[in-house]
Specification:
6 helices, 298 residues, 7 strands, 5-stranded antiparallel β-sheet
Length: 298
C-alpha cells in the first residue's frame, strides 16, 4: 500500500508537468492571442453577435491575419444574386506565420524595415517592442517548462526503480545481504564497515535526487514567471497598443465596421492553464520528493 501511495504522489507532478508544457506550447504557437470581429454596416452594435459577424481576424507574436474579399461573391441568400442587399461581399481570412527573430522577418516591423507592407506588419517602435517581448518571454517560458518536464520524467523513472526494483536488483540485494551476513560472521568490525558504506550510498542517492528536485522546481517557477510576463506584454501589445483599438469607425467605404481587439483564448485561457498546471506540478514535486538539507550542504 505504501508503494502505491508513493507512486501516486510521484505520478501527479508528472501529469501536471505534461499539461503545463502542452498548454504552454499551444499558447505560444496559437494565433488566438487577440481577435477582432467585423460586422456589416447595416448591423447595429446591439446585434453584434457571432452569428452576425462577417469575419474575425487574429493576431499573435508569430501569426498575423488579414481579410480579403472573395472575388465574384455576394452575401446574398438568393442563388440568382437578386436580394434586397446583394452588395455585402463574402470575406475570407488569411493568416501568415512569422519568425521570432530576423530583420523584416517578424510579425511587427518598423517602416524602415518593410518597404512593401503586404501583410500589415508595420508598427511603431512601442508596439513592436511589446510584441517581441511577449513572443520571446512565451518561448522562454515554454523552454523552462519543458526542462521541468524532462526532470520530472527522470524523477518519476528513478522513483519507479526504487519502489519497484527489477528482478536483477532484487537478486543483487539478496546476494549483498548474504555477503554482509557472511562478512559479519567472520569479523565484528566488518559489519560496521558494511553499515557505513550502505549509509554512504543512501546519502549520495538522497543528495542527487534532492538536488534534481530542487532544480526541477526552480525550472517550473521560472517558467511560470516568464509565462506571466509574456501575458503582461501580450495584453499591452495586442489590447492596449493595437492600432485603432476601441475605434468603432467604419472602414472599407462605409461597408463594414469592426469591434475592438479583445483577448483570445491563447492569451486568456491556454497561457493561464499553462502556468497554473506548472504551479501544481511544483507543489506536487515538493510533496513527492525531498529538497536538499541545506545545513548539511552548506
Amino acid at each position: 500500500m505504501a508503494r502505491l501511495i508513493r507512486l501516486l504522489f510521484s505520478t501527479l507532478p508528472l501529469i501536471f508537468s505534461i499539461l503545463a508544457f502542452s498548454f504552454s506550447i499551444v499558447s505560444t504557437t496559437s494565433r488566438e492571442w487577440s481577435q477582432q470581429t467585423t460586422y456589416s454596416s447595416q448591423e447595429k452594435a446591439t446585434n453584434w453577435t457571432e452569428d452576425n459577424a462577417l469575419y474575425t481576424i487574429y493576431r499573435s507574436p508569430f501569426v498575423l491575419c488579414s481579410s480579403y474579399i472573395v472575388p465574384s461573391t455576394t452575401n446574398s441568400s438568393d442563388p440568382s444574386g437578386n436580394d434586397d442587399d446583394p452588395t455585402d461581399p463574402i470575406f475570407a481570412v488569411n493568416c501568415t506565420n512569422f519568425k521570432p527573430y530576423g530583420f523584416a522577418q517578424t510579425s511587427c516591423e518598423l517602416a524602415i524595415a518593410v518597404t512593401n507592407d503586404t501583410y500589415g506588419q508595420v508598427g511603431d517602435a512601442r508596439l513592436c517592442q511589446q510584441i517581441h517581448y511577449a513572443g520571446n518571454f512565451a518561448i522562454a517560458g515554454s523552454v523552462f517548462l519543458g526542462l521541468g518536464l524532462l526532470l520530472t520524467m527522470g524523477m518519476f523513472v528513478a522513483t519507479m526503480h526504487v519502489v519497484f526494483p527489477t528482478r536483477r536488483k532484487q537478486n543483487d540485494a539478496q546476494q549483498a545481504r548474504a555477503d554482509e551476513d557472511e562478512a559479519a560472521s567472520k569479523a565484528a568490525f566488518t559489519e560496521s564497515t558494511v553499515h557505513v558504506e550502505k549509509h554512504e550510498r543512501r546519502r549520495r542517492r538522497f543528495m542527487v535526487m534532492s538536488s534534481i528536485n530542487f532544480v526541477l522546481v526552480m525550472f517550473l517557477v521560472v517558467g511560470i514567471l516568464l509565462t506571466v510576463v509574456a501575458q503582461f506584454y501580450g495584453i499591452l501589445a495586442f489590447i492596449q497598443s493595437s492600432v485603432n483599438n476601441a475605434d468603432f469607425a467604419t472602414k472599407g467605404g462605409n461597408k463594414t465596421q469592426h469591434g475592438p481587439w479583445i483577448q483570445g483564448r491563447a492569451l486568456s485561457v491556454y497561457a493561464t492553464l499553462g502556468w497554473a498546471f506548472a504551479g501544481l506540478a511544483a507543489v506536487g514535486a515538493l510533496s513527492a520528493w525531498r529538497l536538499p538539507k541545506w545545513d548539511r550542504v552548506l
